[in-house]
Amino acid sequence: MAQTVVNMPTRLPDLSNVPAVDEVGVNERVARFQSRSIKKSSKVEALKLILSMIDLTTLEGQDTPGKVRQLCQKAIHLHAAMPGLPHVAAICVYPTMVSVAKEALAGHDINIASVATAFPSGMSTLSVKLDDTRMAVDAGATEIDMVISRGAFLAGDYRYVFDEIAAVKDACGDARLKVILETGELGTLDRIRKASMLAIHAGADFIKTSTGKIVPAATMQVTLVMLQAIRDFYYETGKMIGMKPAGGISTAKLAVHYLVMLRETLGNAWMTPEWFRFGASSLANDVLMQLMKQSTGVYQSADYFSKD
Q1: What is the mean pLDDT of residues 239-250?
Q2: What value, to the nearest 5°, has the Cα angle with vertex 207 and ends 210 and 224?
């Protein structure tokens, strides 16, 4: 039986009006973000903020309930030697592992994010994608990370991509929707800018760079273009949209550069886990190592930190 979709946006944005991206200007701007010097006190605060923005992620075919429970314990207690650290923003798992994460995180204010819509390829029917989304939400997911149909976008079928995002947004119910563009497959900054505006107008609560399954994943250039799309939409509508770079961000130094870019592009209002996330599996440990260095003056061995 056909399912009725309600509360869906219907106005496809005119992507011909999306301004072209000045690639030289983007590269120059990114270089300036990377040259900023950060004082020690500000660096410590930045590192703690980064921890609070991480979506701690496991998305492997070999994921087991035990592995997910271990990851949830790390999300709650990042490092026993440093009490008082913030917890991460979310755990991100496949839909079949959402119920495991929900049980493990009971009583803690940590979001449960789940990839859906035939992640990572997106190569399935809309009905399967909607069922995938509803299954994750019904199991307890508070956030859904969906992938767009890159083939349809690259073929110029923007209406199909727009309607698909809108339908998934409706299927999310109260869960927030992060729309993954898989920027490494879109090819150019101009396409990434258009895909960002398309996703935002279709109902995305966040736009996200990558699945983390292909190279290149997140880059500062791509993230800057997406942040600029968010800024322009905010100036036009007054509505805030979140941003999630994901894949390839594994060091605290690089994550700090992203925070500098975020603050200088969107401002302090976005400097919170509600509006900015890092999709990462190894970033947390490097941030913890840097915090221990700031506290003790020496680096701890990586063996002192859990691998999960």
Answers
A1: 96
A2: 80
Nearest alpha carbon to residue 38 among 221, 255, 224, 297: 255
- The C-alpha atoms of residue 233 and residue 56 are separated, in whole angstroms, by 28
Q: Are 98 and 139 in contact (CB under 8 A)?
A: yes
Rg from Cα positions in the chain:
19
Its pTM stands at 0.92
Mean pLDDT of the chain: 92
279, β-bridge pairs: 55, 246
Number of neighbours of residue 259 by Cβ within 10 angstroms: 21
CB contact at 8 A, 94 and 63: yes
Q: Which two tokens stand for residue 290?
A: 């840097």
Q: Is residue 102 packed enough to be buried (19+ CB in 10 Å), middle (13-18) or exposed (0-12)?
A: middle
Catalytic residues, which ones?
Answer: 145, 208, 244
Domains, the chain, in order of start with CATH, read 19-31+38-53+112-294 (3.20.20.70)
- State how far the Cα of 166 lies from the Cα of 170, in Å rounded to an integer: 6
Position 179 scores a pLDDT of 98
Closest CA to 114 of 67, 175, 42: 175
pLDDT in tens, 77-135: 887 667 788 999 999 999 999 999 999 999 999 999 999 999 999 999 999 999 999 99
CA 20 to chain centre: 24
Nearest to 209 by CA among 199, 220, 218, 196: 218
